[in-house]
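thought: user wants a sequence for this fold. calling inverse folding tool.
action: design(structure=
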């Protein structure tokens, strides 16, 4: 179950039928869209992506916008290096 506004909300669904007849529903692969950024943020030790998202968007669940702008599959990879500048896109999708 995905929440409204999830980055997977518009990803098409598919299904697979097991030999036993059981049908498994799943989402197809989500490709990271081009997400232009307008700001940069310097990562500090101990920061979390949800708190960075809250700082810029007032919504911690929008962290995935930052991941998309930085082509990050794993959110923690963005915070692994102190002093690294990560891209911050606008709050709304174009």
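)
observation: tool returned 94 residues.
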């Amino acid at each position: 179950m995905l929440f409204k506004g999830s980055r997977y909300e518009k990803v098409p669904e598919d299904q697979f039928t097991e030999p036993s007849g059981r049908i498994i529903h799943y989402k197809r692969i989500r490709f990271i869209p081009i997400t232009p950024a307008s700001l940069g943020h310097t990562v500090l030790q101990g920061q979390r992506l949800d708190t960075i998202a809250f700082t810029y968007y007032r919504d911690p669940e929008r962290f995935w916008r930052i991941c998309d702008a930085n082509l990050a599959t794993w959110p923690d990879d963005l915070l692994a290096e102190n002093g690294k500048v990560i891209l911050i896109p606008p709050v709304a999708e174009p």
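thought: summarizing for user.
answer: Here is the designed sequence. The domain at 13-88 is CATH 3.10.350 (Membrane-bound Lytic Murein Transglycosylase D; Chain A).
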